[in-house]
Design brief:
7-stranded antiparallel β-sheet, single chain, 151 residues, alpha+beta, 38% strand, 3 helices, ASHA1/2-like_C
Length: 151
């Protein structure tokens, strides 16, 4: 098997575990700060889609929910729409939520990235999304500009 890469990032959010869980799994909430709606019933084995918010219904990422333990842990595969989300080579994203006083420590781990370019793209994308998630949860509104569009 070829060597793969892993991206991991931990941040602290001024919100409760249930609020963070909802922000990760509610289609309307994700649409506000992520620019895509995460659509699923979030049951293990279910499909999830990362759908554009333009009303087209186009999913830019698809996957299978591998584990869901609200409000502590969510694990799913991530694949392009032309890939099989059950393919063992699909990358895997894990959200671990841990209460820390009045905060939540959120660790995002994106595993099985194919190469250094995919790792760099994941790092840039996750930095933008997680910054927007933090702002959204702590202020009630996303950042005024889409951070993933920054050069």
């Amino acid at each position: 098997m070829a060597e793969t890469h892993t991206f991991s990032y931990t941040l602290y959010l001024g919100a409760g575990p249930e609020q963070v869980w909802r922000a990760l799994t509610d289609a309307e909430a994700t649409g506000r700060y992520w620019g895509h709606r995460n659509v699923s019933d979030w049951q293990p084995g279910s499909r999830w889609e990362h759908q554009r918010t333009d009303g087209s219904g186009v999913a830019d990422v698809i996957g299978t929910v591998l584990e869901a333990r609200p409000p502590r842990r969510l694990v799913s595969t991530w694949a392009r729409p032309d890939q099989d989300p059950a393919d063992p080579a699909a990358s895997v994203v894990t959200f671990d939520l841990e209460p820390y006083h009045e905060l939540v420590r959120l660790t995002v781990t994106h595993e099985k990235l194919a190469d250094a370019a995919e790792l760099a793209a994941a790092a840039k994308g996750w930095a933008a999304v997680l910054s927007n998630l933090k702002t959204y949860l702590e202020t009630g509104r996303p950042l005024p500009h889409d951070p993933w569009l920054m050069p």
